[in-house]
Design a protein that fits this description.
CATH topology of the largest domain: Transferase(Phosphotransferase), domain 1
Distance between the termini: 33 Å
Largest sheet: 7 strands, mixed
Number of helices: 8
CATH architecture of the largest domain: Orthogonal Bundle
CATH class of the largest domain: Mainly Alpha
Oligomer: single chain
Number of strands: 12
Shape: globular
């Protein structure tokens, strides 16, 4: 997917991106938006400054790599990228994604769960199977996610799960040949990352995060 260079006025004619803030990281902010062409609800991720541009370029390259690997599998298992933009007069880099219904975190740790209420076992089995299949597909494209956690596993169409936030991903060849120790969220970090073992890192770090 190529980056479209447009001005703020043109982008505003295409999207409303002033909705609820869905997330905020070191280099980007995600807000709910709407694509006017089809009235579709989307998630708009904006990056600023040079550090943000590096993150934008990296995440876009991962999406393009996966689309080239297997476009059908990409749409099935990843939250798909719908557009990539550089807003020239605002110096903003923007990625537009399909908007999810909620995250796995919202299901496992809801704010209003009744005390003692649990998630049904058959639902957990289904979710685990979906996550495993999504990761298997990702690894088959020689890409490692490197930040699997409930917040990055999203429901987009009822009971279907997809993996999100591919900005932390690395191609397997790059991950196994470089010193990538600052990966994964703390509570989901694999032992070989914590202990900094000398063996090359691989998709096993994602499997540890799931398990």
């Amino acid at each position: 997917m190529e980056v479209q260079h447009i001005k703020t006025s043109s982008f505003r004619q295409m999207y409303d991106f002033t909705g609820e803030q869905l997330g905020k990281g070191s280099f980007a902010t995600v807000r709910e938006g709407k694509r006017y062409a089809d009235d579709r609800t989307v998630a708009v991720k904006t990056f600023t400054d040079e550090a943000g541009k590096e993150s934008f370029d990296h995440e876009l390259s991962i999406h393009n790599m996966l689309m080239l690997c297997d476009g059908e599998g990409y749409s099935k298992w990843m939250v798909p990228l719908l557009g990539a933009y550089y807003i020239t007069d605002a110096v903003l880099y923007v990625l537009v994604f399909e908007r999810a219904i909620c995250s796995l975190c919202d299901i496992l740790y809801p704010k209003h769960r009744i005390s003692g209420q649990t998630v049904p076992v058959n639902w957990c089995v289904h979710a685990g199977e979906q996550i495993a299949k999504g990761l298997a597909w990702l690894h088959s494209c020689s890409v490692v996610h490197c930040d699997i956690k409930p917040e990055n596993i999203l429901f987009v169409d009822g009971f279907g799960l997809k993996l999100a936030d591919l900005g932390s991903c690395y191609p397997l060849a790059e991950l196994s040949s470089a010193e990538h120790w600052y990966i994964q969220s703390r509570w989901y970090r694999a032992p070989e990352v914590v202990l900094r073992t000398r063996k090359p890192l691989d998709g096993g770090v994602d499997v540890w995060s799931v398990g």
